[in-house]
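Aim 2 progress update. The chain analyzed this quarter is reproduced below.
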Amino acid sequence: MTQRLALASARHPVRTILAWVAACILAVAAIALLLGDALTSEAEVTNNPESYQAYDLMNERLTRTPETDPLTTDVVLVRSSTLTVGESGFREKVDALLTELRATPGVLHVADEPGARSERAIAISIGLNGEEGAEEVIQLVERADEEPFDVTTTGEWIVDRDFNKLSQSDLQEGELKFGLPVALVVLLLVFGAVVAGLIPLMLAIVAIMTALGLTALVGSVTDLSLFVVNMLTGMGLALGIDYSLFVVSRFREERSAGREKLDAIAASGATASRAVVFSGIAFALAMLGMVLVPDTILRSLALGAILVAITSVAAALTLLPAVLSLLGDRINSFRVPFVGRNSERGTGAEGRFWSAIVRWVLRRPVVSLVAATALLLALSAPVLALETGQAGIRTIPDSYPSKAGFNALEKEFGVGTTDSVEVVIDGPVGEPETRADVERLTAQLRGNRSFRQVSVDYHEPENLAVIEALPIGDSRDEAAFQAVRDLREEEVAGARVLVTGETAEAVDYLALTDRWLPIVFFFVLALSFVLLAIAFRSLVVPAKAILLNLLSVGAAYGLLVLVFQEGIGNEIFGFQKVEAIEAWVPLFLFAVLFGLSMDYHVFLLSRIRERYGQTGSNDEAVAHGIGSTARLITGAALIIIAVFSGFARGKLVMFQQMGFGVAVSLLLDATIVRSVILPASMKLLGDRNWYLPRWLRWLPNLHVEGPGR
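Predicted structure tokens:
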């Protein structure tokens, strides 16, 4: 099929290219008309945790309106080092701010009287309609912040505004300003020619555009996280470039061997394109693991990655052969000095550096295998101390408004956010025994050093009572999480106790990721094992591939703990030391790393299997397969490392962790795993690498390495 597609596209190149141009035009139209309305910054889980149950209960029983029960989302803090709150100048400042806030667009509610106060500070409670209101309040606060007053703001929407600005900035900086230029340099070095280096980039852009169009169509049916665009772009660069690398390099190899242009395209379609199809399937299967998790952000990220994998494979199978047909040997135009001529032979020649390493390893397989495996296991060891959490306002740079407001609020009143913890008691709260227990719990919270500003409201006709309190410090601190967990152990006679609020939602999310991580592991590993067993007609190959990938993933987890939790070397990279790894990062890393690693593994093994079919020599097949593909796989890995290193250079700790984890894992995978552990293990296993028991001989022989091998 892949050969027929390649030939059909090569024989009708103009028609094929015009079809892709039309697809891009339709995609741009879909993006312009639909994508903006399809994306949301909101996130939710769909497993109905305790925090959601409590919200539903309050919404069902209590009639809350902005008039009867105005919602406080944010706070404006006024401080002075020279005036006290009782002095006329201080009061005039507060009154002026109250008047301006009530006239500010996006401000739904302003408290009639200031809330918390100290000798030299007053907090004004406000309710905002979203990030639009947050922007207006930030501008107002900046104007009001003048001597002798220090005026700051923080809260739900102010924090969300800063998080979204930071995340979009970090992602764009990583992809466009760092990853893309480095990717272009690596492509020029790998291909040794400007034209050959630009083609993979062009195909990646086409794949990204068409995938964004498909995303817009899906978004017209269901809301998607705005981060889907960043995930799709990053993975599109990775996959689009990778698949083009594989096919173009094979085409150049066939041309160097003397094949005619169409014959070279057909040979590439029968070999490299087959590997691309299986690589794409392996990547999509890994991403499917994230679809299982009942979290709208992870599902959106998985959807974007799967869609761009589909369009990248489609472009490599059809658009690329058409472009190669039109260019022919002009693909080698504008040769890069020193590396150009050697690169034109594609995967037909072995690189001296990597071949020397592989052949050294093949002569000493036991020592190499033991030493490399021991190193990766040592790097993986810190994973035993892995703690997951959720990034709070403490991780935002001090220069952002929400962080300045948080620091000021925490210094004055001990609490830094407006994120309250709500204890919902569902039962006959008018009954003496139940009411006494509610009062006991309220008094207990007032005496708990983890909470401030404790209040209780009774709704006897609705059989409901709500205790509300503010956690000290950051609502995402581990101390706040533990306080909520302890609260959930409390009981009230004759009633059901549910704890909700932003902190409780975070606790529920941590429990969700902890529960689903092993499920995702098993699902992805099982499907990948089946795919590789079918692709290579072997049980040893998939088992070994899974073990090798787990080694690199484990090392990435261990280094994350070492650098971010333990703070060893974090200052060298400019990273923050934190209490825990972001809860979604281990899930995301596993899916992405496993998908990309399997991507390279399929391509490499297909070359080894092809050579083994030609020579019957296991050692020769391993040496040639690794030596001839090492430059490509290393280049492809370096491109992704560059993109994710750009993320790691950002200011948000969650993206620092994500970028560092992906970059270090792929670096280990492309070097130690591919050049040492894989060849050493294949040398020791010999022909047993391709073992398939008799009772599985019915498996289809798909010849991922090419027909007739």
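The chain has a mean pLDDT of 87. The two ends are 16 Å apart (CA to CA). These observations will guide the mutagenesis experiments scheduled for the next reporting period.
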